[in-house]
Design goal:
By secondary structure, the chain is α/β, with parallel strands linked by helices. Helices cover 35% and strands 15% of the residues. The protein is built from 18 helices and 15 strands. Strands 4-5-6-8-10-11-12-13-14-15 form a 10-stranded parallel beta sheet, with helices on one face. InterPro entries: LRR_dom_sf.
Length: 479
């Protein structure tokens, strides 16, 4: 192909645009990856870099249970948040230059292996190549608890903390599991200027002395908008007293551990600006009696709450029911209730009935719902007018018979969830009326994604395959 002349307009645009022009002119010509412009390479790297996972362990301990590591790291967000740009530096000069020049690749720093000098180097690379960008720092020392119990201390603790602490002014998020750190290390970490950023994320179990250090550090930051309390060490009174000093700034709160309904409602009442609330293990620990009675409490109106996520780990959903009965959230748009232990049908029926009453009383119109329960309760919910704006419904563990698919058909007489764009279901059963196929076809133009756990066999896939080829993103998890 002849060179572009000085008058060629392609010379006046970026190499990425030039590449796009050339590929449009020659659509059948495949360009080798080593010829891609740097800006396109960097864009590709953002989505294709390998995540930090069990295959990227820094130590090669033969006894490591990789499946356990994978599960733990997924639970803590490693797989989706923390990628490994350092691997690009060893590929070739061009990829090395591309990686070093893209600050966005280096903004998330994971420190979880204090036995490897290589991870010290990787942390330094992240600090260096991220430029002046805000940083997400994840320090996980839970694997060092045994070392701490034996009174031993690895010298690389300090090596890791130095480059991180030197850039504390750049922190946007701090995710901290400090169980393996000594008190001196925590004192050093907390003596650093508190992040003047908009987010702080925290997970741990502190002893009382380090709790006080942490509280002083957090409350001095000025703009803490995101906060997580650990599972064990924070009592209801402690939580309320702590967040009182930052309640006007707090927007996103996660309460993990045994949380009582009274505690949750007190938090909602005290944090008027709270937008997102996540509660895990709602209930009372085994062997403990409830310390607070909420029957006399007034209804709490959480005027800014738009997202509520609740994990129920008990066969009786009473604590969750009590929260729902005493809550109104007029701006609630996203609701997720995960019934881990699968409560009995009558308990589920009462709970979802209370959810319906709460939505009606709040005049809330949900956009997204994550549902775990029986299909009859789901059918009662979606019949409400307050679900007519729903765009995403996730019911991945709900078995769907033909009558439910029939109910979901859009026609002159039926119009449940008319704006639904993303639908996830569990096992779907066929019927002679082909209700599932008819439901899918009736939603052409609005439904974009259909995720099905299993199609009960035998099932003629002709209609679904044609929809997938033409307009529908169809996923069948266990085909």
């Amino acid at each position: 192909m002849p060179r572009a002349s000085k008058k060629d307009p392609a010379r006046n645009v970026g190499s990425g645009q030039t590449y796009a022009t050339e590929t449009q002119s020659h659509p059948s010509r495949a360009t080798p990856v080593h010829r891609l412009p740097l800006e396109i390479l960097c864009h590709v790297f953002q989505y294709t870099l390998p995540p930090v996972g069990p295959d990227w362990l820094f130590t090669e301990n033969a006894h490591v249970d990789r499946h356990l590591v994978l599960r733990e790291r997924r639970a803590r967000g490693y797989q989706t948040k923390y990628r490994a740009p350092a691997v690009l530096l060893a590929v070739c000069k061009k990829w090395k230059a591309a990686a070093e020049g893209d600050a966005g690749l280096w903004q998330r720093i994971l420190i979880d292996d204090f036995d490897s000098s290589r991870q010290v180097r990787w942390a330094e690379l992240h600090v260096k190549h991220s430029g002046n960008r805000a940083l997400t720092v994840h320090i996980d020392t839970t694997g060092l608890q045994e070392i701490k119990k034996q009174g031993l201390e690895h010298p690389s603790h300090t090596q890791f903390l130095q480059p991180i602490m030197a850039n504390a002014h750049r922190w946007r998020e701090l995710i901290l599991y400090p169980d393996g750190l000594t008190r001196d290390h925590l004192a050093s970490l907390f003596s650093t200027s508190a992040p003047g950023s908009t987010f702080l994320f925290f997970r741990s179990t502190f002893v009382p002395t380090t709790q006080r250090m942490y509280e002083q550090w957090v409350t001095s930051s000025g703009h803490v908008r995101r906060l997580t309390f650990g599972r064990e060490s924070h009592t209801p009174a402690h939580v309320r007293n702590f967040i009182r000093g930052i309640s006007q700034d707090l927007r996103d709160l996660s309460l993990q551990g045994y949380r009582t309904p009274a505690e949750v409602l007190a938090v909602l009442q005290g944090c008027a600006q709270l937008e997102i609330l996540h509660v895990a293990l709602l209930g009372v620990a085994t062997g403990h009696e409830p310390t607070e009675d909420i029957r006399g409490l007034p209804v709490v109106v959480a005027r800014n709450l738009h997202t509520l996520l609740v994990e129920v780990w008990f066969q009786l959903a009473d604590p969750c029911v009590e929260v729902i009965q005493h809550l109104q959230a007029p701006r609630l748009r996203h609701l997720s209730v995960e019934d881990i232990r699968r409560s009995p049908s009558d308990v589920q029926a009462g709970f979802w009935s209370d959810v319906s009453h709460m939505l009606v009383a709040s005049r809330a119109r949900l956009k997204r719902l994550s549902f775990t329960g029986r299909v009859m309760h789901l059918a009662n919910l979606i019949a409400l007018d307050h679900f007519q704006d729903l765009e995403q419904l996730s019911a991945k563990e709900t078995t769907v018979p033909g009558w439910f698919a029939e109910m979901m058909i859009i026609d002159e007489d039926r119009h449940h969830l008319p704006r639904l764009q993303d639908l996830s279901l569990g096992t779907c059963w066929g019927d002679p009326q082909r209700s599932l196929d008819r439901m899918v076809l009736s939603r052409r133009g609005t439904l974009r994604v259909l995720d099905i756990g299993t199609l009960a066999h035998p099932y003629d896939m002709t209609v679904l395959q044609e929809a997938r080829a033409d307009w529908l993103m169809l996923y069948i998890r266990n085909s």
